[in-house]
Write a structure and sequence with these properties.
about 150 residues; alpha/beta; 5-stranded mixed β-sheet; 4 helices
């Protein structure tokens, strides 16, 4: 009446049936090294932004916790919001669309040193007209020390 585990109807586990419990991490290490190389090559390309030659000053860095919006004005007069070229007349609408109702968002303006001062002030005027009060003009603080 009882069942025997060793007979033809029952199953007995042998050493061959045990699951393999070791993990081979070599493929994972290979993948991680490939990803590391990819990110090392790609990271400098992601942080460059629009290239402008900033004026030189002795100003200190601007403190703040939030990520500011960057507006760049190149030597040829083209205006970029982050890395996207825009027209001056579209600046207010784009800023409002990006920030929503956050009027305390910091906005940094990077103007090339050869750009007309009036053109930089037109951009500042558009930003102020959109309701943003935290506007800063960026300079190259380290370059002033080299000229001394």
């Amino acid at each position: 009446m009882g069942m025997s585990l060793g007979g033809p109807g029952g199953r007995r586990r042998s050493r061959r049936d045990k699951p393999f419990s070791e993990i081979n991490i070599t493929p994972m290490v290979d993948v991680m090294l490939v990803l590391l190389v990819i990110f090392m090559v790609a990271a400098p390309m992601m942080t460059t932004g629009v290239s402008v030659e900033l004026p030189k000053t002795n100003a200190a860095p601007i403190p703040g916790q939030d990520e500011p919006l960057m507006i760049a004005i190149k030597a040829d007069g083209k205006i970029y919001l982050q890395n996207v070229e825009i027209k001056l007349k579209d600046l207010q609408a784009k800023l409002k669309a990006i920030t929503g109702e956050k009027k305390d968002t910091r906005i940094f303006i990077r103007g090339d040193k050869s750009v007309d001062y009036g053109q930089v002030m037109q951009a500042v005027s558009e930003i102020n007209a959109a309701g943003f009060g935290k506007v800063a003009l960026l300079t190259d603080p380290n370059a002033a020390d080299k000229g001394k």
